[in-house]
Fold these 2 entries.
Entry 1:
Amino acid sequence: MADLGAAMSGEADMCMLGGGNPAHIPEVEARLCESVRALAADSDALGRVIGDYDGPQGNAAFLQSLATLLSSEFGWELGPENIALTQGSQNSFFALFNIFGGTFPDGSHRRILLPLTPEYIGYSDAGLQPDFFVSTPPVIEMLDDRLFKYHIDFDAIEALDDLGAICVSRPTNPTGNVLTDVEVTRLDAFAKSRGIPLILDNAYGTPFPNIIFTDAEPLWNENTVVCMSLSKFGLPGTRTGIVIAREELIRVISGFNAVCSLAPTSMGAAIAQPLVESGEILTLSRDVIRPYYEKKALDALALLQSELKGLDCYLHTPEGALFLWLWCKGLPITSEELYERLKARGVLVVSGHYYFPGRADQTDHQRECIRITFSQPTDQVERGLVMIAEEVRRAYEEGGQ
Ligand code: PLP
């Protein structure tokens, strides 16, 4: 994380293919700046945003507009009482995991099931107690053109006990996987059969920021907790997470906000409010953000596939999010060593071994993958991809020395 932070702050001249920062998309940024300028020009409104605490559930007008938008877009039967804001969805997961996982007053211990690893690195240390996450190896479907896709091994997860909740990112960070509708429906049924919630991390999903290149159906019901965020829409600095859940859970999240920070931050909701109310957040996501990242994903994929020709390397089929997930089968060095070699050449990626929280087994696969972010400027991404392929080729050619 320190390497990634230094690269983003410009302290080092690096090809930043490592973090989760969204791109600065000119059309989106222009619209957000317009909203900031309108707020700054209205001293009463600005005075309220920066001079008053919102309630612990978050800005009431934003909650109402978002409930209306989600009901009309998806037909979800929810109101503002089903939504709470947090200081970013990272903060939402910290609260949710520790509500549903850990040791309870009756002495029982429940773990958070991550039904498919590789899974988001930010979950790994979010549990306050040991033995917090559990996961099992995925099924790997090999596709044409040296692509592959991970699937949930339902037989393996259905054999697990002592579960407190299920959580999955869709699209998935780090792989760009999007669980199929069949998988989500089956997870939903499994969660209900165990009396535990299904937490869907929608940080990249629909309807905003909509960095999803397939036609996956969104899901919400009283047993599902959908976590969203304004970060990947272009507002990561405002730290605005959104939890959509049944009313009692929203009251618990509001209580968490009150205890930890009195109230969630107001600025993100204030900037995004006019876009939610007008529905522009949907059109920008659909017509600008999705095509922007889809093109970046396909360009990066084509370049890397061509640079890696002849090597025993495979890429996860990019279905969403900001990442390519590269699997170098039988690589003679570990992904951590590859990370170090790339860093020495000025390219930052993330070693794949971090993305397997909750896994009891150690497999070669866990040390053969890296995550590559393609959201940064194209020249930087292209230079980085070429150097990644060169280092991977060198590692295969030289063996483990
Ligand atoms: N979930 C996923 C899958 C992410 O990739 C990220 C950030 O990169 C987050 C959650 C946290 O986002 P934020 O706290 O900025 O809302």
Entry 2:
Amino acid sequence: MTQDRRAAPALMRATSRATSIRVEALTGTIGAELFDVHLGAVAEDDDLLAEVRRLLLQYRVIFFRDQDITRAEHVAFARRFGELEDHPVVGSHPDHPGLVQIYKTPESPPERNENSWHTDATWRDVPPMGCVLRCVECPPVGGDTMWVDMVEAYRQLPEDIKAKIEPLRARHGIEASFGAAMPIEKRLALKEKYPDAEHPVVRTHPETGEKILFVNGSFTTHFVNYNTPANVRFGLDKAPGSTQLLSYLVSQANIPEYQVRFRWRKNSVAFWDNRSTQHYAVMDYPPCHRKMERAAIVGDRPF
Ligand code: SIN
């Protein structure tokens, strides 16, 4: 299923065909807010569930307001899309495994991992297919999250770049992000437990068949198969060839035409397709509290 939203303006503000869910697109590219829907009910209704999945694939990130749901309901909703996974560094709720607590308080350590464009956990061989994030406590102002459409980022690349990156594969690691502030022994232990993953630079969406630019500035460290005779005459060619190309690709996430920005309220929920997007949590609120709970749904191996 590939839909060009700009070719279908009726979809900008519509009631879903199959259910009573009302849909409002938030940009011409990515993101929609869904109304008249309660996630507790979706988890129990196969038609609603199928419609939410369809809208997720179409808009890549979908938003729900006023979801006064319990943690068990949050988990139950996400579980309808697959198994959940914990995070090796950010802890989960003690009574709800799989519900990762992204809590920032004035006392939080200064490390910041979320305010950098990233697709969650690409350092895994099998990164999550999607994440369901609920706002438990908001700062009075600020703390928005942004998402970027990496299908659109791929689609709009110049054709010669598309041809050049088609065969490339890249390394993704946890060490230089979540491990960076750790003492060396702890960092090496983290890397041993979660060795680097290798993924195609252009992945294919397993459900829609769309091509996705799949490198990100937080976890992608280098191309693993760039330095071939076709690209490198002398050692001198290596750095400008591969480093500048990777940095150019990573920078595509900065293009506002591919982005949506969401202002949180307590009990707002975002559900994003982690295969086709990156996100960035804007840290303009410290020293206030911001408490988010995230269920990451196990995905499949990128191809
Ligand atoms: C994340 O990076 O997965 C969390 C985003 C957020 O806290 O807004």
